[in-house]
Design a protein that fits this description.
The structure is a single chain. With 93 residues, the chain is mainly alpha-helical. It has five helices and two strands; from the N terminus they run E-H-H-H-E-H-H. Helix 2 packs across helix 3. The longest helix is centred in the middle third of the chain and has 11 residues. The N and C termini lie far apart (41 Å). The model has no long low-confidence stretch (mean pLDDT 88).
């Protein structure tokens, strides 16, 4: 059973990450890859990643997978900083 791979648009990944104000080290950690791997992904023209990796990137960036693969257009809301979860107990801040 082969892992499903998806081709993503690396310039979109980089644009969204920057707009979301998430540093490369933080995003790499959330996805479970090294910062160097993330750098390579962002600087390649197109990248094949496992569906699992793409889905983790999308969760971390709160973006639709189809936006990263280029099936959907980038939206203005994709390029806004993430809203912090409103957590009263202070565990999230």
């Amino acid at each position: 059973h082969k892992m499903l791979e998806l081709e993503i648009k690396s310039e979109r990944l980089k644009a969204v990450r920057k707009a979301r104000k998430i540093g490369r080290p933080k995003l790499a950690k959330q996805v479970g890859i090294t910062e160097r791997q993330l750098f390579k992904i962002e600087t390649s023209e197109t990248v094949m990643l496992t569906e699992n990796a793409v889905s983790k990137l999308c969760q971390a960036l709160q973006i639709n997978i189809k936006t990263l693969t280029g099936e959907l257009p980038m939206l203005e809301k994709d390029l806004r900083p993430l809203q912090k979860p409103q957590c009263v107990s202070g565990c999230c801040s």
